[in-house]
């Protein structure tokens, strides 16, 4: 597979000398879905700002589609890498949605008709058809998130970077936004996402990197979330569904697979119930079970599931 991003030895300190990133080495292939997780202050946003050339460090080499980012013009970087920030208000500053989404193509020197076509296409991709004349500050937060994404998509980047895309969204808006991101990836856009929302992560990741100043670990979502010491040491948690099925295992129910998503959970639970002759009983006692204490700290009730 062709490389979309190759980072070699990225090291960066803030202006006051505080270390932010240390010797980061990452290779991401075209079309991959990558999620980066880590505690607050781990350097995720700082890392992303290096990937579009906003921040620069001489102690590294960053290749975008095989070309050194330091040798690219601003317009070339914009065409290669687009960043959607966590707060959409940081990217929506024009009188109308059309003006916001058209801002990038206009500044890239595109003719008027192409600008209009790109705006229409970008808004369609995020489900905001007909929003051209809407005022940004009158939109819901979820609509603002999608409008900010459209403003980046209008420049047709090959790599899309998103910082906390599901933060502060209600369940429906969250599901809609995840669907939009995955549809973009299916169209061939490489996606790289920083997030704390581990329950949404399995739907958005082929591979996961744990970042805490430097790269601590890399693997599939299952590999990362199965490493309890890694999660504990970096103030991270596994998805709720994964933790629940870990508890089932601790109480003697041998689930063949540990699910990470709701769809997987339904399948695994159905197989487990069938194997247990139609019912599952959990007896949760007053005392703490040593083998479960890292999953849930105390149990003081009795729970029973019946098919």
Task: Please characterize this protein's 3D structure.
Pfam families: ABC_tran. It is a peripheral membrane protein. Belongs to the ABC transporter superfamily. By secondary structure, this protein is an alpha/beta fold. The chain folds into two domains: 230 residues, P-loop containing nucleotide triphosphate hydrolases (Rossmann fold, 3-Layer(aba) Sandwich); 60 residues, no CATH class. 34% of the residues lie in helices and 22% in strands. The protein has ten helices and twelve strands. The strands form three sheets. Strands 6-7-8-3-9-10 form a six-stranded mixed beta sheet, sandwiched between helices. The protein is globular. The chain starts with a strand and ends with a strand.
How do you describe this structure in short?
The protein has 307 residues and is α/β, with parallel strands linked by helices.
Shape: globular
- Strand arrangement within the widest β-sheet reads 6-7-8-3-9-10
Named at the architecture level, the CATH assignment of the largest domain is 3-Layer(aba) Sandwich
Termini separation = 46 Å
Percent of residues in beta strands: 15-25%
Provide the low-confidence segments as ranges: 282-307
CATH superfamily of the largest domain: P-loop containing nucleotide triphosphate hydrolases
Mean pLDDT rating:
85
User: What's the number of helices?
Assistant: 10
Number of domains: 2
Helix content: 25-40%
Radius of gyration: 22 Å
Count of DSSP E strands?
12
Give the ordered list of helices and strands: EEEHEEHEHHHEHEEEHHHHEE
Function: Probably part of an ABC transporter complex. Responsible for energy coupling to the transport system.
Protein name: ABC transporter ATP-binding protein
Subcellular location: Cell membrane
Main location: membrane
């Amino acid at each position: 597979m062709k490389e979309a991003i190759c980072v070699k030895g990225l090291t960066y300190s803030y202006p006051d000398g505080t270390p932010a990133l240390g010797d980061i080495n990452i290779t991401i292939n075209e079309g991959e879905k990558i999620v980066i997780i880590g505690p607050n202050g781990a350097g995720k946003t700082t890392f992303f700002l290096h990937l579009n050339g906003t921040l620069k460090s001489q102690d590294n080499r960053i290749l975008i589609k095989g070309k050194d980012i330091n040798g690219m013009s601003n317009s070339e970087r914009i065409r290669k890498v687009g960043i959607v920030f966590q707060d959409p208000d940081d990217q929506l500053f024009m009188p109308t949605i059309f003006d916001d989404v058209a801002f990038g193509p206009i500044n890239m020197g595109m003719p008027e008709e192409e600008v209009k076509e790109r705006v229409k296409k970008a808004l369609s991709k995020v489900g905001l058809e007909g929003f051209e004349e809407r005022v940004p500050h009158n939109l819901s937060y979820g609509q603002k998130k999608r409008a900010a994404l459209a403003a980046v998509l209008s420049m047709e980047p090959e790599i899309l970077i998103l910082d906390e895309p599901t933060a502060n969204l209600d369940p429906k808006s969250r599901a809609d936004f995840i669907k939009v991101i995955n549809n973009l990836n299916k169209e061939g856009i490489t996606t790289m996402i920083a997030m704390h929302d581990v329950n949404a992560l399995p739907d958005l990741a082929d591979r996961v990197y744990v970042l805490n100043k430097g790269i601590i670990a890399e693997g599939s979502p299952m590999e990362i979330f199965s490493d309890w010491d890694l999660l504990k040491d970096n103030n991270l948690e596994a998805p709720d569904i994964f933790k629940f099925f870990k508890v089932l295992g601790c109480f003697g129910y041998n689930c063949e697979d540990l699910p990470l998503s709701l769809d997987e959970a339904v399948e695994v639970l159905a197989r487990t119930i069938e194997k247990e002759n139609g019912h599952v009983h959990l007896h949760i006692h007053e005392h703490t079970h040593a083998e479960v204490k890292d999953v849930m700290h105390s149990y003081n009730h009795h729970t029973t599931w019946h098919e």
